Recover the amino acids of this structure.
């Protein structure tokens, strides 16, 4: 049974050709959280890409910034049905981080401080599609939004843009991350509405 | 000889385990061993699903995702749940 | 009674009236409602014409079959509570799912130990249900309610709580923003000392039910533990917020 409630329309949902199906435009930036907010300091922050041979490529905060920080303006689509358009970010392209990483593996597990994980194809992280983001809307990324640094992969649902990112581990197969184990889609294209597996 | 059956035989045992309300059942955290009613977990609700964590060690006890035509339930962080008989 | 299977019900709004400056009392007629234990909650599901749905949980203030009373606070930036507070009219139908919860409940005849209820704001709703059930059952365990609220105008179930007060049920108010005229304490937040002086002492071994915002509950529980109450005697229900 599903009774229509007289007078209820929910939050305003306006059609907009920049919104993928099932999305609602928001102005504020909702905080989604599946656990306590980790307290990560940039002076001890360490980012690591681990390849299939076990080689670890490390960057400190200063080494990350030295790779070059770029301005990014993108639309963000969260699987919980909100979208935020034209968000301004600053971050380091993953192309720079992968420059000297030799790998045959096609998949990546993103790992965060606090234990969160999410899986992505490597090709979705390269060619100007993904960043380690350190600022949003002109401010350093605050801890609730994943600061000091989060993954930013705007062409996929936002759960793929792991908050509190600490590293990427190469994988030969597309293993499931945190939400993917609980029924979310392995890839997560918002335009195809790939919410659930 | 060892009796090895298939999962069908669990039907009777499982039938009364899916109780109408499980929040007052006591369960054990696989990580730290704390035993407490499920109602005492810390639940993060502002997320793509409900995530229940241990109040002692923050380990993920359970997750529930409403995936439209089905609901995913993970109890991976609970090593045992005590049920009334 | 203990494991009463929850179900979906169609509820008809019988009455909606202001409860506080930002809350309403909704009286629902639910012919299929089996009654509920004191402290339980239910989910209200709203459905838009295009199929969009939003569901939120609310504590139940009543226990009898066929009738449900809710006290609903309007949350700033909320999606369901502003609709329930401002838009709903008598005669409207709502879908509800319940009764839910078997942990944060008080059952008559459970023990002779004192019961301490501690409410922050609209957290009083399930605790009011416990106090009403206690009176209806003529249960002999002594009850006390400590109720922290902004101003006298924000008190839920004012007349009902006053009517329940008596030899076995005492109510203490803490006004955080504005006390009534002639009140002997200035308005201000609950403190550990005022908590200690208005609640059953640890040696009386009360069972304690705390309901309020997440911040309120965490502050109160920390104080209760410092005062010497045992963790397993404290039951909590947080409804979010700061």
């Amino acid at each position: 049974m599903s009774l229509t409630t007289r007078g209820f329309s929910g939050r305003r949902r306006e059609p907009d050709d920049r919104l993928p199906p099932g999305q609602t435009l928001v102005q504020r930036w909702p905080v989604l959280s599946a656990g306590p907010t980790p307290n990560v300091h940039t002076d001890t922050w360490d980012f690591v890409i681990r390849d299939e041979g076990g080689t670890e490529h490390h960057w400190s905060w200063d080494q990350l910034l030295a790779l070059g920080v770029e301005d990014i303006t993108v639309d963000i689509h969260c699987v919980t049905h909100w979208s935020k358009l034209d968000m301004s970010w600053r971050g380091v392209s993953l192309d720079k981080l992968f420059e000297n990483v030799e790998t045959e593996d096609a998949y990546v597990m993103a790992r965060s401080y606090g234990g969160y994980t999410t899986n992505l194809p490597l090709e979705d992280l390269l060619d100007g599609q993904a960043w380690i983001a350190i600022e949003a809307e002109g401010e350093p990324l605050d801890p609730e939004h994943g600061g000091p640094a989060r993954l930013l992969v705007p062409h996929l649902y936002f759960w793929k843009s792991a908050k509190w990112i600490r590293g990427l581990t190469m994988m030969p197969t597309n293993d499931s991350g945190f939400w993917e184990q609980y029924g979310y889609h392995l890839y997560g294209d918002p335009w195809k509405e790939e919410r659930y597996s | 000889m060892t009796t090895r059956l298939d999962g069908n035989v669990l039907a009777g045992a499982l039938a009364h385990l899916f109780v109408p309300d499980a929040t007052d059942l006591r369960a054990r955290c696989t990580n730290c061993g704390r035993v407490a009613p499920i109602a005492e977990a810390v639940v993060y609700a502002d997320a793509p699903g409900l995530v229940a964590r241990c109040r002692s060690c923050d380990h993920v006890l359970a997750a529930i995702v409403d995936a439209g035509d089905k609901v995913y339930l993970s109890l991976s962080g609970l090593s045992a749940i005590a049920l009334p008989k | 009674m203990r494991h009463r299977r929850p179900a979906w019900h169609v509820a008809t709004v019988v009455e909606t009236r202001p409860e506080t400056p930002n809350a309403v009392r909704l009286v629902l007629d639910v012919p299929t409602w089996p009654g509920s234990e004191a402290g339980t909650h239910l989910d209200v599901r709203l459905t838009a014409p295009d199929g969009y749905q939003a569901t939120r949980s609310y504590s139940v203030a009543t226990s009898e079959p066929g009738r449900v009373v809710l006290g609903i606070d309007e949350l700033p930036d909320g999606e369901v509570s502003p609709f329930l507070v401002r838009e709903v009219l008598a005669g409207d139908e709502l879908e509800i799912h319940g009764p839910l919860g078997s942990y944060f409940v008080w059952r008559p005849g459970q023990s002779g130990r004192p019961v301490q209820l501690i409410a922050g704001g609209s957290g009083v709703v399930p605790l009011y249900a416990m106090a009403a059930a206690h009176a209806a059952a003529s249960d002999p365990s002594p009850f006390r309610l400590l109720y922290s609220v902004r101003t006298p105008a924000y008190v839920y179930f004012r007349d009902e709580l006053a009517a329940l007060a008596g030899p076995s049920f005492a109510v203490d108010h803490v006004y955080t923003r504005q006390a009534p005229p002639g009140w002997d304490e200035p308005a201000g937040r609950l403190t550990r000392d005022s908590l200690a002086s208005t609640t059953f002492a640890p040696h009386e071994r009360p069972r304690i039910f705390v309901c309020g915002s997440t911040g309120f509950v965490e502050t109160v529980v920390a104080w209760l533990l410092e005062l010497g109450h045992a963790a397993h005697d404290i039951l909590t229900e947080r409804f979010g917020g700061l």
Remarks:
- The helical segments of chain A are 61-66, 94-97, 178-181.
